[in-house]
Input
Amino acid sequence: MLGARCLLRALRSCSSAPCPRPKPAAKLSVRDALRVQTASGERVKVQGWVRSVRSQKEVLFLHVNDGSSLESLQVVADSNLDSRELDFGCSVEVQGQLVKSPSKRQNVELKAEKIEVVGNCDPKDFPLKYKDRPPLEYLRQFPHLRCRTNALGSILRVRSEATAAIHSFFKDSGFVHIHTPIITSNDCEGAGELFQVEPSSKAKVPEENFFDVPAFLTVSGQLHLEVMSGAFTQVFTFGPTFRAENSQSRRHLAEFYMVEAEISFVESLQDLMQVMEGLFKSATAMVLASCPEDVALCHRFIAPGQKDRLEHMLKNNFLTISYTEAVEILKQASQNFTFTPEWGVDLHTEHEKYLVKHCGNIPVFVINYPLALKPFYMRDNEDGPQHTRLCQAARMDRLPAVFDLFCLA
Output
């Protein structure tokens, strides 16, 4: 009788003890999952959109992407996890074990234990098709879906990395970031045609303004930065600017992002040029290191032939020549120009391209422009007989490098 009571007490004790629960799956992005070097069966959860579905007799293969990486994560599952809702374009949540992949194409794969379709997608109505590479003109019809394509996804990831790299460079260099106004009453020295800002519900009455004075979308934060440079020795801004020139070209955009900086107590023009060169090289190197797959896709399909030029620019110092030297080089050129190069006349795009090519395809700073070509606030060199100002202009052959990507998409 005593033995039965002891046994009953032991059974009650076991039933009241908590049962060990499986460790919850850690949520990973596709990018982080692909970067795991030694996968040992840890349980993870991945959420994203299905890029491909391949169902075999006993095995189901999926490729899932969440926008964090150009490469998708391969999911391997038992065929009984297949369902009619599992199609190309649908959103899913996959839980399972991250294991080493037997294939040489990827380091790891996700062995699925559970696949949940979060959002359905009818492949017949979905405008993007598996393995298709639609032209950009076609993608413009679907602004809510075009970012799922490899090309636009890569551009946006590169743009994100470039933005972070620019801020990182200025922060490491001791600059203070200033948020300059988007709506302003100044036109920044006539830098471009302006978009005027007024409430949409208000009747157009020229004598009345919402802000009591005419207000516009900014064309530049320069004037605001100049004020700030009276209190901070190094300041910069990086934000949207707007121009109202009605021209359909890459050089005349209605909206784009622009980097501007002001430095107080500058000892020489060379100091400014070193900051510009450092910004370009630092940001470019960081982008190339952070998302090499995306950059490779851009070089292959969007801007072919630019990879070697970028690397060439990173390895070499930028050159500096005077405006007078530039005009002499252009006059001695065997090439015929549409605009004849003359001292006292501004350089045109064709001249800039030739100078860059002449100097070995390296960005060129052209300094000491004629006095009449530059604004009053640039320092007078007080030289003669050719009167010049202490200023510079960077000529980079309009190279579609990192910063041009801010104008795309």
